[in-house]
Specification:
Shape of chain B: globular
Distance between the termini of chain A: 28 Å
Shape of chain A: elongated
Largest interface: A-B, 23 and 28 residues
Mean pLDDT of chain B: 90
Number of helices of chain B: 7
Radius of gyration of chain A: 33 Å
Strand content of chain A: 15-25%
Largest sheet of chain A: 6 strands, mixed, barrel
Order of helices and strands of chain A: HHEEEEHEEHEHEHEEEHEEHEHHHHH
Mean pLDDT of chain A: 84
Distance between the termini of chain B: 34 Å
Strand order of the largest sheet of chain B: 6-7-8-3-9-10
Structural class of chain A: alpha+beta
Number of helices of chain A: 13
CATH architecture of chain B: 3-Layer(aba) Sandwich
Radius of gyration of chain B: 18 Å
Low-confidence stretches of chain A: none
Number of domains of chain A: 2
Strand order of the largest sheet of chain A: 5-6-11-8-10-9
Largest sheet of chain B: 6 strands, mixed
Helix content of chain B: 25-40%
Structural class of chain B: alpha/beta
Number of strands of chain B: 10
Oligomer: heterodimer
């Protein structure tokens, strides 16, 4: 019974090509949008996850100062309350693998006639452990460089490319805010940080050198933030408490007074970012679903017109023996075929669109089998749901009246 | 046993203003193999009688037995089955499916009877040959003449080997020469195949092809008997 009816449905669609195409367009756009939006959402989620994971999920970020001056609360990092000694004390805590006190800033880097504005981070050798830096060439500086405030630098690969073209930067001299530095290492490419900074366009120098010779006027020994790498996720909660107690102690903060630092946990930042991207995915999906429903209404509309137009045909079919359920199935199948064909094209459009977005932008949309199946399932459901009412209307026609219809 | 048996059939149509008594007590028996013409002026109730005979409508009162089944007691689905297996319809306007080939048109009743595709196609081709249209199986209805379309409709009516074929003004849209061809086909099918035929018409030269005349007036049978000699076929 179903076989010949599918043939009928295809014939009916072929007879009204323009109308069928326009009706399907609604489904095409709806399904295409769902697949593309879900792909973009997934792509963003993946890239956020990857960039957080690249920073390491066992990280703490200790940021200096949210001081109060006459009741006006400043932003964190605005007062230099953390020191290199604080960092050393933190390193002694049980479960800490490495710490890296950092003083970041921007500087103009000059090599011969070439110059480039880049970010400069003064830190300790612990940085290379904390950030899991791998070296393409050369090596890191060590504790003696920090103690002696030597002028050595590790640079990122895209900065090296900018300054030296394809040549090896090792042993070359760069001038950072007028001071000459010898390049002793170049990192492997690390990509973007979570905040969008390019981690390959950087100069990393000993923190002492940075403070005394590059940035100048800061309080000697103070740093903007300290990154702390823990042994594993299981010690994070304990360490958080211990670090806060230690720093309150060192900064002589009494009970009831507000901290002049804050300890942030990368895991919680990751969770926050994950829930943000999940919300974004949901939003994209919801917007796309609305277009699917609009497409479904388009199908219902056309099927109602079709039933009215073909009233006489329905009468003839009933006269020669079609039961009500045969007529019901005929029109239901027609709307299901319409929506499924539309959906099939929509999948192609969605996948193609995701490809186009991948090529044209930095987003990396990921089309999952799940989103394709979701698109298909919803489309089939819409075909049945919005096709049922017109089909019911066709099936409930009285044969005599349908035959008399002009 | 009579294939069609109407006993005291009444049909009323109730509107808001009044109740119309369209059929006021019809008693009619038609045996298998008969060729009956039903005539009557408009408003005489012949369309209503045709709808009841065709199981498209049920009597308000009285009994209609078609091939042994009491039609008044059947539900929609059973009526559809009865129309499919027991009746064949030929309409004034041919009423073919414009998008389907002649073969598929003829085979359509078999689709609803659940006959397999290869079987359907074979029988449809045989039936097209019987009405003189072999070789047209894959054509579309709009490629052939009105007379040929009516032959296709006749083939469609016959394909399920129905007990009765009902033709409602089958020549109403055709010129007189083509009308005569169609009536000659009916006459041959009745004579050679023993098909029971009921033709509704308002033209005497069409009714003249039948063997029995039933004339209606004001919802009652006014005449039931042989074709009067003054009815002349238009050859």
């Amino acid at each position: 019974m179903i076989g010949p009816l599918i043939g009928e449905a295809l014939r009916a669609m072929a007879a009204n090509r323009m109308r069928s195409a326009l009706t399907m367009l609604g489904m095409v756009i709806g399904v295409g949008a769902v697949i593309m939006m879900l792909a973009i959402g997934k792509g963003v989620e993946d890239s956020v996850r990857a960039s957080i994971a690249s920073m390491g999920s066992n990280l703490f970020m200790v940021v200096s100062g949210a001081p109060q001056a006459g009741g006006i609360r400043m932003g964190s990092g605005s007062a230099p309350t953390l020191t290199i000694d604080d960092a050393d004390a933190l390193e002694d805590l049980d479960g800490v693998v490495a710490v890296s006190p950092s003083s970041p800033g921007a500087a103009q880097v000059v090599v011969g006639p070439t110059n480039w504005s880049t970010s400069v981070t003064g830190t300790t050798p612990g940085y290379f452990t904390v950030a899991e830096v791998k070296f393409a060439e050369g090596q890191a500086f060590d504790e003696s460089d920090v103690r002696g405030a030597t002028r050595v630098a590790v640079i990122g690969p895209s900065l090296a490319e900018n300054l030296f073209g394809g040549d090896s930067p090792i042993g070359r001299t760069i001038r950072v805010n007028q001071s000459p530095f010898t390049v002793i290492g170049m990192t492997e490419p690390r990509g973007q940080a979570i905040d969008g900074r390019d981690q390959d366009d950087v100069v990393i120098i000993p923190v002492t050198t940075a403070q005394r010779q590059v940035f100048g006027t800061q309080v000697i020994g103070s740093v903007r933030f300290v990154q702390v790498k823990a042994e594993g996720p299981e010690v994070m909660d304990r360490l958080q408490g211990e670090m806060e107690t230690l720093l309150r102690d060192r900064h002589r903060i009494r009970e009831g007074q507000e901290d002049d630092f804050s300890v942030r946990n990368m895991t919680s930042i990751m969770n926050a970012a994950a829930s943000t991207t999940a919300a974004m995915k949901l939003l994209l999906g919801a917007i796309a679903s609305i277009s699917l429903i609009v497409g479904g209404i388009g199908i219902m509309n056309i099927m109602l017109v079709s039933v009215t137009e073909r009233t006489r045909e329905i009468g003839i079919r009933m006269a020669i023996g079609a039961r009500r359920r045969d007529v019901l199935w005929q029109f239901l199948l027609e709307s299901i075929v319409l929506s499924l064909v539309g959906c099939l094209i929509g999948v192609l459009v969605g996948v193609g669109g995701a490809r186009a977005v991948a090529n044209a932008t930095e987003l990396k949309p990921v089309v999952t089998a799940g989103s394709v199946m979701l698109g298909f399932g919803v489309a089939a459901g819409i075909g049945v749901f919005f096709g049922f009412y017109p089909a019911r209307r066709a099936a409930s026609l009285q044969p005599i009246e349908a035959l008399r219809y002009q | 046993m009579a294939v069609i048996e109407l006993t005291g059939v009444l049909k009323d149509y109730t509107t808001e203003a009044e109740t119309l008594h369209v059929l006021k007590g019809i008693n009619l028996q038609i045996e298998a193999g008969e060729f009956v013409a039903i005539m009557g002026p408009s408003g005489s109730g012949k369309s209503t009688l045709m709808n009841i005979l065709g199981c498209l409508d049920v009597p308000t009162d009285g009994v209609y037995r078609l091939a042994g089944s009491s039609v008044g007691e059947l539900d929609d689905s059973a009526l559809a089955g009865l129309r499919n297996r027991t009746l064949g319809f030929v309409f004034q306007g041919f009423n073919l499916m414009a998008r389907s080939s002649l073969e598929d048109n003829v085979a359509l009743p078999l689709v609803y009877a659940g006959v397999s595709r290869s079987d359907r196609n074979q029988r449809a081709r045989d039936m097209l040959a019987k009405v003189g249209l072999d070789g047209y199986a894959r054509s579309l209805p709009n490629r052939i003449s009105g007379g040929q379309q009516q032959r296709v409709a006749i083939a469609r009516a016959l394909i399920g080997q129905p007990a009765v074929v009902l033709a409602d003004e089958p020549t109403g849209n055709l010129d007189s020469t083509t009308s005569a061809e169609i009536m000659r086909l009916f006459e041959r099918l009745n004579r050679e195949e023993g098909v029971t035929l009921i033709v509704v018409t308002h033209e005497q030269d069409i009714a003249a092809w039948a063997k029995r005349l039933v004339q209606l007036k004001d919802g009652l049978i006014q005449y039931d008997g042989p074709i009067p000699p003054e009815f002349r076929r238009h050859e």
